[in-house]
Amino acid sequence: MTTEDAPRKGISRRGLFGAAGAAVATGVAGYAVHSALSGEESQAADNTGPVEFHGPHQAGIVTAAQDRLHFAAFDVTTTKRDELIALLKEWTAAAALLTAGRDIGQYGAVNGPGEAPPEDTGEAVGLPPARLTLTIGFGPSLFDKRFGLASKRPAALVDLPHFIGDDIEPGRSGGDIAVQACSDDPQVAVHAIRNLARIGFGRVAVRYSQLGFGRTSSTSRAQTTPRNLFGFKDGTNNLKLEDAEKLEQQVWVQPEDGAEWMAGGSYLVSRRIRMNIEIWDRTSLGEQETIIGRGKGTGAPLGKAEEFDAIDFVAKGSDGEAKIPMDSHVRLAHPQFNNGAELLRRGYNFVDGSDGLGRLDAGLFFLAYQRDPRKQFIPIQTQLARTDTLNEYIHHVGSGIFACPGGVTPGSYWGEKLFA
Ligand SMILES: C=CC1=C(C)c2cc3[nH]c(cc4nc(cc5[nH]c(cc1n2)c(C)c5CCC(=O)O)C(CCC(=O)O)=C4C)c(C)c3C=C
Ligand SMILES: [Fe+2]
Prior knowledge:
This protein is an alpha+beta fold. It has one domain. It is 23% helix and 18% strand. The protein is built from eleven helices and ten strands. The chain has helices at residues 19-26, 28-35, 39-45, 81-99, 186-199, 244-250, 277-280, 285-292, 329-333, 377-387, 416-419; strands at 68-76, 133-138, 177-183, 204-212, 214-215, 266-275, 344-345, 348-354, 360-370, 394-404. Strands 5, 6, 7, 8, 9 and 10 form a six-stranded antiparallel sheet that branches. Strands 2-3-1-4 form a four-stranded antiparallel sheet, covered by helices on one side. A hairpin with a 5-residue loop joins β8 and β9. 45% of the residues are buried.
């Protein structure tokens, strides 16, 4: 692309330098060499392209989980419904460009007039789309009196209850609107949120945000299972994008579920879960495996050999005790003990420095999509909060719930059906 092409929406970021230059500038070439080292990384080497923004469902839910997260919750600061709608239209147009790997605005980062601030902040120039997805959700507080939306609040968008052991910080919780940016390049995800926040200036303000540096789930059978900060494979028994029938039952809101505008959408629960890394690290391997209910090396259920072997909750060891302990995490979270309820987990590891007492401020930014939190997250978490032995090593400090509408078709905008 040349500067002559500039007065057209969405400057190609790579085109500014040419494809070869972009590969070098982004380190993609180095990434590919590095990727020869292991199967897991070679999977990532292909992850530079775009994910389609438009479709029946929002991208970023069943999309094979990317490696990086920038999650932001916004408070709406305008009280004018028209201004909020205008913002959602602007955000949608920008999101379509960003996810295609393009600069936002007409002139992008570097082709505008020298006298004005650039339309795009520029830190993603030369970077590929890196499978960026942007997923929007609306929190319960958006449905107060301000925008005339009270009657549109879905019954399933409940305020989450207090769970035993919760230590929730209001400043890390709630939000009128959430945007989940996932990408295989951290700078691409950060660029996206930064530019959406910039577009929103005067209409929304970032309430809190969270970076995640490593996925803690796989959402496709083509992906290997990653590890969380306790060193365990996480996401083995997750819902996967290949399970189309189960996704209809457990993830996608159906037309008969009420709140018509939510059909094809899903409910997101976010929890910032602090992990007591230092205490965990002083716990024996056997105890760690007993707490989770799976082997640390293989990820196999206790008593089994392979990661994807079925869990046998009945099997007893020579001591007469259940091989999968009654208070182990996988037993208490399993659909068999939760009325068949499942979650599509999409969380990320985080480390936000240390807490001043020499402990890492680290943990899991838990993200889970579901058809109805009243039947899924809430009962599962109620059970975990009561008896999960993992609770000695974790505590929940942030919380959010968001109604994520169905997908965007070309010409429509995020939340159009909500405001219709
Ligand atoms: C309310 C839902 C859940 C919370 C909160 C949660 C926190 C949490 N989990 C781990 C580690 C693992 N979880 C695993 C399985 C698993 N976890 C949940 C739900 C919540 N976890 C479910 C529904 C499942 C699947 C259970 C099953 O059907 O077998 C596992 C095992 C591997 C896997 O299947 O993913 C690990 C490991 C941590 C560290 C954590 C909080 C910090
Ligand atoms: Fe879990």
